[in-house]
Amino acid sequence: MNLKFDSNQVNMCVSADKDSTLSNHDDKQLPNNSDLGQVNQNQWNNDNSSHIDQCLINIQPCSSTSYSSQLKSSLVNSSDLSMLNSFNNCDDISHDHVYCMSNISNITKCCSINVCGLRSKLVIPDFINFVEKYDIFFVSETKLDAYDTVCMKDYVFFHKFRDKCRNKSGGVGVFIKKSLSTKLTVLDCSSENFLFLKCKDSDVIFGNVYIPPEGSHYSSLELFDSLESCIIDLKIKFANCLFCIFGDFNARTGSLSDFVDFDKYVINENFDDITMQHIVMNNLDELGFPVERFSCDSKCNNYGQRLIQLCKSANIFIGNGRCGNDAYIGRNTCNKGNGSLIDYLLMSGILFPCITYFNVLQFDPILSDVHCALEFCFNLNIIPDCNVMDASIKSKDDVCYRPVWSSNLSASYKHKFDSTAVSNLLDELKEVCENLHFDVNVVNHLTGKVSGILTDAAVSCDLIKKNVNHRKSKKNNKIWFDSDCKNARIQYMNYKNMYSRNPTAENKESLVCSSRQYKKEVKKKFRAYQKSIVDKIKGLKNKDPRSYWSLLNKYSGDRKEVINKVTTEAFFDHFSKLNEVDTQVDIDDFDITNVLSNNSDLDKPFTVLEMRKAIISLKNNKASSSFDHVLNEYLKNVPDSMFDVFLLFV
Hints:
The structure is a single chain. By secondary structure, this protein is an alpha+beta fold. It has four domains: 2-102, no CATH class; 107-258 and 293-379, Deoxyribonuclease I, Chain A (4-Layer Sandwich), CATH 3.60.10.10; 397-452 and 586-649, no CATH class; 483-554. It is 35% helix and 15% strand. It has a six-stranded mixed beta sheet. A six-stranded mixed beta sheet has the order 8-9-10-11-13-12, covered by helices on one side. Helix 3 links the parallel strand 4 (107-114) and strand 5 (136-140). Helix 14 (505-543) runs antiparallel to helix 15. The longest helix has 39 residues, at 505-543.
């Protein structure tokens, strides 16, 4: 494993020697997996931020490979690879397979897991906290129906459910952060087992799949035919689209090859340039990923054989065992029995370099009964919507300033004013008024000076306090999450840490038992809490209607969160239009005789007395604006020289 870091662009180049790794599969000499994990863990830590600047992926195949020139030309000329950008120069490195990826990019964090029933998981705070770590969270086997409503703060939920069934079963769904929901479109699909999303700004299509296990009442190989038909229809509808499909396929594929291996002589002699470019583009060997599949599960079943056929026909590849922390491993994703690999990440070949992180997480019975979560990060340039409330970039410790007032400091506050600054500001205001030179920048400049004079005097008297809000970890602040739930959670976390350090069968059994007890306790307290709310509502219906409706509205699921998305520019444009003069008005329609002579009194300039009376009428402990930290008390206690400044503003 060779690493090269570019000091200017913080690029990571991962290379593997041809003689020892990728090309010599017969010797099975693999790179150090701990090195791979360390590289990807560093990548994950560096990219773990909520808002990252947009940056395109830079991929460079090496000039030493057999297809390098064809690959470069195909990438540059291909219209469906707008995400791939200019190539970096890596010719000075002695290797055969290199790709470079910018470390400063817009990373989309995703996760996929079979939850074995979603409603029961939403009661557990640990599951909610786990979902909130990701931008897109895919779930399968949700066991929902048409009457189930799933709500989670800051997320939008889409799902498909099994319609014709005696008991709730099957189903797929996805949680999408609201900032990303406008960038993704849910595509129509006739099957209840598939859910497809398309990125509006790119050709990438996400797919979430759940195939019932073999032998179940709903199992059928025809489901793979339906999935293949959906992929073909989407390829026809969206030309040059790229696929990223994940979910529980219940397919055991062993180490079967998932692509058609063309002979180089056949390719050169029988395929045209367009077909050649398409084959070269999806050549994992050229992109620096292992061609041979790796899997800890050596068994195959009928579903596995059919999944391999689907991969070959749809020209998509299995990501498990090929990328991220799972490279050259292929960990089991199902802990039932001796374990099996049945949850997959399937992708178009050209999307492999877009995976900045991939890992099969350790089994957690809180998240699923038997399945492990697939965690992965994409660099797909999905730019989230900017929320006005979150527009400012906050540091680790949020610093805010709070204006206060004390009547004992009134005299001291007046003496702290800078008379020179007030005099200079007054001269500047008179000059602007005489020249009639008004624009937005001038007004903002003068207003800032007035605020600065007021706040400087307040700061000198220690009237503006600095508050540092140290960020703390999220706490389970549910009303029904009492001490019994906390104790059960502590016991579960202890066994979870023990199993993480030493994953033995005994520790796993202890973890499952403790998680079962934890979930049982949480559900018990939640049901008791729901019952108390229902009883309270029934008791208030006739006794106290006002409290009845207040409580009913509080716990109603139909309330919609109102988010202020109006920017300051929109406010400015709106009120600017209000002050515009309609030049099309015919002044001949006005009767000049109706203009009263006493209107001249209204045109007189404001006096200091009127200004004082207006300021005194202001409410105490209120700020004139949330931006300048100027309390009304500051205006009431200014020296007389400041009133001349105020009069020029009005």
